[in-house]
Amino acid sequence: MNLFPLLFNVYLSFTNADLSGGPVQLVGARNYTVLFSQAKYANALTTTALFVLLSVSIELVLGFVLALALRDRVPGKPVVLTLLLVPMMLCPVVLSLFWNLILNGHYGVLNQLLSTLHLPQPQWLTDDDLKLVSILLVDVWMWTPFMMLISLAGLNAIPKHIYEAAEIDRAGRFMVFRTITLPMCAPLLGLAVLLRATDALKQFDLVMAITGPNDATTQTLSARIYQVVFRDYKVGLGAAYGVVVLVAVIAVATIFVRYIDTLNRRTGKAQA
Amino acid sequence: MRLARALVIVPYLVLATLPLGWLALTSFKSYEDTISAHAKFVPGTEAGGARAEGSVKFTATVDAYRKLSQPVAGTTRDFYHYLGNSVLIGLLSTLAAVCLATLCAYGFSRFRIPGTKDWLFFVLSTRFLPPLAVVVPVLIMYRRFGLENTHLGLILLYTSFNLSLAVWLMKGFIDEIPRAFEEAALVDGYQRPAAFLRIIVPQAATGMAVTAVFCLISSWNEFGFAMTLNNYEAKTVPVYFAGLQGNIDGVPWPQIAAGMMIFVAPIVLFTVLVRKHLLRGVTFGTIKQ
Question: Number of folded domains in chain A?
Answer without folding.
Answer: 1
